[in-house]
Amino acid sequence: MAPPPLLPVRGHWTLSAMLVAVCAAGLWLFSRGFLLTRMALPDRSLAHVLPYEGAAGPDQTAGAWRPAVFRRAVVLVIDAMRADFATWSDELNATFGAGEARRGRLMPYHNRLPAVAALSAARPEQTMLCRFRADPPTTTLQRLKGLTTGQLPTFIDAGSNFAGSAIDEDNWLRALAGRNVAFMGDDTWISLFPAELADTQAMEDNATLWEARGGGGWTRSRPFPSLNVWDLDTVDDGVLSRLPLFLLPPESAERDMGAAQAAELRERRQRWRQLVRQPQTWAHADFGGGGGGGGGGGMASGRVGPEQLHRDWDVIIAHGLGVDHCGHRFGPDHPAISHKLAQMNQAIELIVDAIDRDDAPTALFVFGDHGMDPKGDHGGDSPREVDAGLWIYANRRWRSRDGDARAARVLERVQAALQDAPLDEDLKAAWWHNTHLSDDYRAAGSAGLLDAPALRSIPQVDLVSTLALALGLPIPFNNLGAVVPEVFAAGGAGSGAEWGLLQALRLNAAQTQRYIDTYVGSSRAHGFPDDALRAWQAAYDRAEASYRALPKGASARGQGHARDAEEQAAAEYYVFLRLVLGSLRQMWAQFDSVLIAAGLGTLALATAALALLYACTRTRTLEDVAGRCRSLALGGALAGAIVFRAVAAVLVSSAVSHMTPLEATVAGLAVGAAAALAAGLAAEAGCSLGARRLCECARHVAASPGAQLNAAAAAMAAVHALAFLSNSFTFSEDSVVLYAVQTLVLAAAATAARGLAPSSAEHRRAAAWRALACSAALLVLNRASSYSTVCREEQLPNCTPTFYGLPSASISTRPLAAANALMVWLVPHVVGRALRRSRSDRAMVARLWVAVGMRISMGMAAAYWVLDSIDGQLVASGLPAAGAAGDWSDLRTALARMSAGIALGGGLAAWYASPFCLDVAITTTAAPPGPIRGAQPAKQRQQQQQQQCAVILGYGNAYGAGYLVFATVVFCVLYLVQQPMGAMMLSALFVKIIVGAELFDSLRDALGGAGAASLAPAQMAMLAMLSFVDYFSTGHQFTLVSIQWNAAFVGVREMQLVVCGAIVALNTLGSFVLAAACVPLAVVWNEPLGSPALRLAPASYVARVTGAAAVYVAYHALIATSTAAWAAWFRRHLMVWKVFAPRVMFSIPVLLASAAVVLFAAVGLATVHMLRVGLTVGDVQARTAQKVQSAQKTTAATTQAR
């Protein structure tokens, strides 16, 4: 017996690798040109060098630009502390008589920080409460960069929130070198400041290392994992257990105290202990192995003992995450938020009590790095996400009525000067009405029940210059913020010196001007527009002129006209700082048009190449196509690289582009390779553009129902691609893609109806009825999927979120989690019915995996989410994590791991070993008639007229059923990482994919002949559209805040960056991964085991599968190209960073993941493995049948001869 024909796949892998590489290069080039990062200057501000010349030197005693306001500071970051969380309102607690509505509904987060309100009312000269306006994106890493450097973030930085790189810009932590610093909390700080916050405890006991370091101050760092949003307590407990080691005297100090003082100290220490919710916190070595958290011996060293830790610290940085995690898990409207805010309130009370006993001037800065939206998420720029709170307290009076009055007059002058300036409102207005407290509140001049309380409003970057000068540090070199006037307005900078606020603002403005000059001088391509530079310089010159015109001499400064002149000069400096900050906010980043054009050109050529590859696969094999295209692509890449390197040198020198040599090389390689690849594929496909060719195509479409359906698919793809030319359509992409896919389904139904003509054969009419039934099922399922939604901010109030079961819920309700359990029966049942049509359900793989293993895997996943819902309510009720909730957590983890293990270790392994759903049944059939000689008994004659034969069950759909089993394994893994409603919608998508495969197979049967021209384009377009429909129905939008971060810990106990990142990616891209994995079903569905098309021409069959995959990837490439093109077109649009840029960012992983899954995993591995096994089995079966048939003919001939 000759060996079975080989399955050539080298051409598939070659073309797939080239196309994916070209797509990736195009996306990278566009990102480099569109999502630029600003240039980070390496310059540093030095304490002994003032930012301007011709002025008095720095304060020599302190070695600072000006005398410090505070000697020490505690920086307490309450992650996601929104402005209304810190604002007290008596009206929110007020109820009124019968028949009168309650004003200001009290929410769980209202009035939960009474310590802030009480201290602000009792000690107004020691406190200040502000709205703390964040610059988007409002993710923690980007906010920490702004809060330490004073710089604006760039949008592309949001992608690094999982793993930030060290900050190489000047910052106020770097200026703390030589001082004693303690840090505890969110480990993001350590990733950003690995050198500045490096713990010195071990080094202190090693004299050699300490001397090599140069001595200086000590540092204590205790970072805790930050991304486990289900853990509400670990980070907070780590912070609150260690703060008293610095704020309270050590236990050894009790020996020198009286009995009353020692008892009071023990009572204070006990109050701190009561804040810690997890008993296992005290088992850490910092507390001497559970000694109670008072001695701090575990954090001491031979050089720095417990007493030095308490007495000598300069700055404490504490970053708690409980409020933020509570928001992510439950949302701000959940009662759990009140427990976390109450815990933070007690911590503030204890910190204030501790610093009040300190002899040194000590300040407490309490602020949120961002806010949270009504669902508890953040990352965007909605008002509730950017409006955090800031509260400043000190143990000394640092404000005065006169200073506040003068600062208010300065701010009023600034508001008047900036009234007509094209700046954001928060930069022009120094006060803000806190309308977040309640919908019943109103802003000034608007309709409402109550007047919203007014707060001072400052940008977050203002903290940097304020904190630096208040502590006697130089302002970081790249800072763009302005000092908070009230902090410096109370007095002068020294005896007989000028007004403190004026001096601080002059230092501030001079540093900003120095930064601008350095930035412009660093590179022509990175400079600012000339008109902006002139406006900034004019504003700075006016401020300097006002300053130089001030009366000289200490006696003159106290006069009324001199005070007015000082305030005017201070206002001029402040106006300059706001103009610079506001202008740079609007510029945000400099676009590189050359790189944008190169990226768009590469993507467009890659899309064309994918479409041409499909055309080639209809007549050519991949081996033939790949051989020629490989040489062309290599030559085009080399030629493009040479040309681009030469052109780039000219463009950079003329300041048209800022591309680096690497970017120029990649651009040349990508554009050259894409152009050569597209040209080569066009030649192989025999494509030509001309009037005659277009007429031929039009006649073909008019005559072929299949071609008409493909044309309808192309039209709907164009509708989807053109939706991004408007921000309104981009908001409503879920509705646009639903319209497109429903229209395409109706077009398929209209095509099927042609097969019902009376002249059609009976089998064609039956196939047409099946197609109509499948179309109706798809219409119903798509409409049902559209009812699962999460809403973009722009869609409110016309959109009602339903994804979590209730509009106000932020976690899945228990009824919804229980309803998800129905999928455990439904999906395997649908798969079983699909297999039963070809009797493939009788096979051992189907009976063990689909009927048993798949149900067990899905059942465990459903149980996981039921327990998660129960666990969420236990945590929300205030139970400690070590109680019942902790036990549920362990059980959930075990269920998730067993679910994934059964799917991968059971289902995938079984399919790989035996990919076909085949079984053999023995049946009795009538024997063919033959001569009867002589008289024979009746029983003997009956036996001769019957014969037994073996029937292969599942033969008719061997390849389709086998691949469907593989798809069920992929589905089970994705089902696990989806939340309950998402799991149900993903189940609906899987059912739709199966129905869609049957729809197009029935269409081919109903049309037949020339009318059944390849329907792969229409089928792939529908499949791609379904992936978008169910992306939205699984609880996602193309916004950062819709990412379901809590899915990162499915089956994981602790933060593991790669694993958790992969789980979030599967959760987000689940619909695209599932659809891409099911692409081969379009070709192999209802393909019999002994298929002549495969057995006689395996290379052509592989080309068919690759062609279908190419069309699917082409659809996603078209959408990615369209989003990028329209984002580039609208790059100066008001909504570019809110709408268009996020859509581009999401299109990158969607395209690359879809291409990689379908070309490499689905076709290159799974389909090729199945086809290779099928060629062997099918060849043996065919040859056996031929031998049996030959033997039967020989026997019949011999019998007849006798």
From TrEMBL:
Q: How does it sit in the membrane?
A: Multi-pass membrane protein
Where does the protein principally reside?
endoplasmic reticulum
A GO biological-process term? GPI anchor biosynthetic process
Question: Where do Gly residues bias regions lie?
Answer: 287-300
Family annotation (PANTHER family): GPI ETHANOLAMINE PHOSPHATE TRANSFERASE 3 (PTHR23071:SF1), PHOSPHATIDYLINOSITOL GLYCAN (PTHR23071)
Species: Coemansia javaensis
Where are the membrane-spanning stretches? 12-30, 594-617, 629-652, 664-683, 709-730, 736-755, 848-867, 894-913, 949-977, 983-1000, 1007-1029, 1059-1085, 1105-1129, 1150-1171
Any idea which UniProt keywords this protein has?
A: Endoplasmic reticulum, Glycoprotein, GPI-anchor biosynthesis, Membrane, Transferase, Transmembrane, Transmembrane helix
State the family named in the UniProt similarity comment for this chain: Belongs to the PIGG/PIGN/PIGO family. PIGO subfamily.
Compartment annotation: Endoplasmic reticulum membrane
Region Disordered: start-end pairs: 283-302
* Any one GO CC term of the record: endoplasmic reticulum membrane
This chain's protein is named Mannose-ethanolamine phosphotransferase gpi13
Q: What is the annotated signal peptide range for this record?
A: none
- In terms of domain of life, where is this protein from? Eukaryota
Q: Which GO terms describe its molecular function?
A: mannose-ethanolamine phosphotransferase activity
Per the record, the pathway is: Glycolipid biosynthesis; glycosylphosphatidylinositol-anchor biosynthesis
